[in-house]
Amino acid sequence: xxxxxxxxxxxxxxxLLVLAHPRADSLTAQLADRAEQRLxxxxxxxxxxxxxxxxxxxxxxxxxxPDWADPEKPYSPxxxxxxxxxxxxxxxxxxxxxxxxxxxxxxxxxxxxxxxHGLAYGGSRPRLHGKRMLWLSLVSYGREQFTELGWDQxxxxxxxxxxxxxxxxxxxxxxxxxxxxTAGQQALNTVDPALDEVxxxxxxxxx
Length: 207
Hints:
Blueprint lengths: L6 E2 L5 E6 L7 H15 L3 E6 L26 H12 L2 E7 L7 H10 L17 E7 L4 H6 L2 H14 L6 E7 L13 H6 L5 E2 L4
Parallel strand pairs: 1-7, 2-3, 2-4, 4-5, 5-6
GO molecular function: oxidoreductase activity
Family: Belongs to the NAD(P)H dehydrogenase (quinone) family.
Keywords: Oxidoreductase
């Protein structure tokens, strides 16, 4: 892998940490907490978006349905507020369990409503280009079986290319935490290597 270029920013780098699990004591939440600790230690300001705790409504409404003929369509205030949080982040980290080989409903709905036409893609300016993104997914399968079945490629392509890449985020990584039902606390050791794949060195000021 080629060396990552540093983030050049006049402000403290920002990370949007998205958590998608209904239980605050879940392993998913513990991994998000470990990621927050690491990001904080590396000097990132953290915007923690706990979709369940914030009671995000994943259901699409007519107000937020994309109008393919109008990329400047104004969506609901909630959608614009969430999109502002995405835009403000230099790094986006999404921590979630893989359910039915896809995103949990609340996370899928967040993508559907917030990463919308004219906002995340199809607009007059590239809002998300240059950001870095980590999809950190917990799966119950072991690595060998998951890979033999080909799900690693299917899920990775959907997230890295179908969502991140489609919205202009070329520097996106998908990292799986295997055997999540039995891994216990040792799963926390996977967070730092996963973040190492996406976090750049940070350069704050100067040239």
